[in-house]
């Protein structure tokens, strides 16, 4: 091309690119009310946003991909934790995590009950914004350096080899009629996601206690005079814990408040009896 043709090409390309950018921008603004559920922005949501900004939460936390990375991403926090847990946490974070043990310290902002309620309303609105799947995985409120934390079910049960990715004498755990395999899939996909609050690695307590050795721990609980539930067997205890989380409260202030467990009570309604059976089979396999 000669200089004149080159100039025309550059101008035309710039004009076309600018037009496309303008169209996409207008289209994005057209969709914002739907994508952000603008009709769900209540007075409480607005007040909660003010609490978020006033206390500089974004200096440590991230929402919708914006903010700092010192503390967990909170985009979906209300779906992963629930209002009872968040309320207790915001009232006294030191009950849950401390600087000496977890090498982090969530400051107590001394929020009023109304401010906490409004902040949770704001975060709940944020969690329902159509953000194309961000964040890509449930947050973990603590990490683990324990070998095998990220192993599969079979590896965790049988002492797997992280190099080969296979446990000794491994059997397939993806068969459609294998209740343990189906239970593992539910553990990682049910809503709310069980894996967002519970680890299956020994010693790794997240928002909920670790479920490693849950079968043997259940036997000890059933034999304890402190247990007042109705379960008689390990399987019944696990089922009761899923269906009626407050029937037995795991020791520790970070798991319950005022006699009520922070664990959601919706699994009995949202999962079928068969799915509950599969979850029980999976969890009971951790001896």
From TrEMBL:
InterPro entries: Cyt_c-like_dom, Cyt_c-like_dom_sf, Cytochrome_c550/c551-like
GO molecular function: electron transfer activity; heme binding; metal ion binding
Occurrences of domain Cytochrome c (ranges): 43-127, 178-287
Keywords from the named record: Electron transport, Heme, Iron, Metal-binding, Transport
Entry protein name: Cytochrome c
Organism: Parapusillimonas granuli
Organism classification: Bacteria, Pseudomonadati, Pseudomonadota, Betaproteobacteria, Burkholderiales
